[in-house]
Write a structure and sequence with these properties.
Elements lengths: L4 E7 L5 H11 L4 E4 L5 H5 L12 H21 L2 E5 L7 H13 L3 E4 L9 H6 L2 E3 L2 H11 L4
Helix pairs in contact: 1-6
Length: 149
């Protein structure tokens, strides 16, 4: 019986990289389950709004980040591997935080980003188990580690 892997997909939400990885893993029949943070930007920003009114800015973001943090912390702690995507459109400070959290937990992670941001991510990449530049490379890594190479 093969082990089923839980893969946390962290990082930028403006491209279809998650869909590409999930489709590639499904096409190969890999024994993986994918989890991720809330990827709807507006919903994520509003995660704490039901707790009552707060001024825009710091306090609204503070409440929402704490509510989002329940999901992120739990899923990261329980995953087998995290894939952390850094895009070029926005700075993903949350992804960098997720990478640091993985490193602190000794949780393996793979970074996914283009070559043009190697320098600002050098410490994040240094702690990663691998650096990929395409979702297809991530799928190949998943195939290898799950024994389907």
């Amino acid at each position: 019986m093969k082990m089923s892997w839980v893969i946390y997909l962290s990082g930028e939400i403006h491209t279809d990289w998650r869909d590409q990885i999930q489709a590639g893993a499904e096409a190969k029949g890999l024994p993986v389950e994918f989890v991720s943070p809330v990827t709807d930007h507006a919903a994520s920003d509003a995660a704490g709004d039901f707790l009552g009114p707060a001024s825009e800015g710091f306090w609204r973001d503070h409440k929402s980040s704490k509510v989002n943090g329940i999901r992120t912390k739990t899923l990261l702690e329980n995953c087998d591997l995290a894939i952390i995507r850094f895009g070029d459109k926005y700075k993903q400070w949350n992804a960098a935080f997720d990478a640091g959290y993985c490193a602190a937990l000794s949780k393996p992670y793979v970074t996914l980003h283009d070559e043009d941001i190697i320098h600002p991510l050098k410490e994040v990449d240094a702690a990663a188990m691998a650096w990929a530049t395409t979702p297809a490379q991530v799928v190949d890594i998943l195939a290898y580690i799950t024994g389907d190479h």
